Amino acid sequence: MRELLDDCVHCGFCLPTCPTYAETGEEMESPRGRILLMDMLERGTLALEDGLTRHIDSCLGCLACVTSCPSGVRYDLLIEETRATVEARVQRTPVTRARRAALFAALPHAHRLRGLAYGVAIARALRVPLPKLTPHVTFAALRDRPPVRTPPVGERRLTAVLALGCVGRAVGDDVNAATARVLAACGVEVLAPRDQGCCGALELHAGRAAGHVRRSALLDRLAATGADVIVTSAAGCGSALKDADHPAAARVRDVHELLAEVGLPAQIGRIDARVAYHDACHLAHGQGIRDAPRMLLAAIPGLELVELDEPALCCGSAGTYNLLQPAMGASLGERKAASVRRAAPDVLTAANAGCLIQIGAYCNVPVAHPVTLLDRALRCR
Ligand code: SF4
Ligand code: SF4
Prior knowledge:
By secondary structure, the protein is of the alpha/beta class. The chain has 21 helices and nine strands.
């Protein structure tokens, strides 16, 4: 920790890319300010309760500061360790404790979330008013699930096993199904065992140690299939799985990364639409993947790819952030929605369920995962 803290030279180059600094202009809401607080905590000159927890909780963990830091400061490791310390030592208020307990009683458990998703689909069908951040779940999307094995079209080039995700299986199994179809069209055999757990990313993001156990268990389970690669279409899951201290972590690929490696089929159907691509933080900053999704989308005939302004700025979803920090989550959601409106797309696309739910809640533009657009284009050849 000391060496990581000493890497920061306090230059401030990271400040303009930090969403909480952009919104508040407060030094302690910036990466540099938070590193200073961590430094004081480490030296014992500041107690956890002295306002530090508030500034650590308000960090989105978006990692934009990791990308923009010219000194290579590993803020990702610093915030992970500090969050774990806060989680272990700080006594939160009863309301906060209850909110966090309710969230984490549901989140890593795909079956519980899927039950809730059916409840949402029923409520939507009955036009019951729902909270703003309720996902747009439909019965058609819930029915579209990947088979346990999808054979490749033509000669098999490799075998991939799909990490389905917990939120992914509840509100995004149609994205998993589209991922399997698109990969299969590119000669990839796809395995999708249903008996798999959550990657632990949301717990790790909140400093909860249980996430480490869950992540290792999932990598053990997926590696045991013998597949050449482990693939995910969720930016947050991919980032967490790649960061694991586990032999199978080196086999993890984001779906866009894998598709860019194997290549799309020669024949692709048209989609005549103006499409804006939003960089999910854990794809762009967490995994350094920015070009592959744009290149794949641009390969669809008729599709006009447009860029958003402030592309590095988080949409405010950030795992459970918009639920646990609703005021800042809403400000950033509105800010991203304004960017989307300025770009005036027909569809907004992002490679993470959380971003799609958040941006969909704040602007009146249809949202879709890039893989579902590729699936549509490949099915209408
Ligand atoms: S984190 Fe990096 S960019 Fe930010 S103040 Fe420290 S050295 Fe500068
Ligand atoms: S992770 Fe994001 S919100 Fe947190 S300090 Fe870095 S840029 Fe700011």
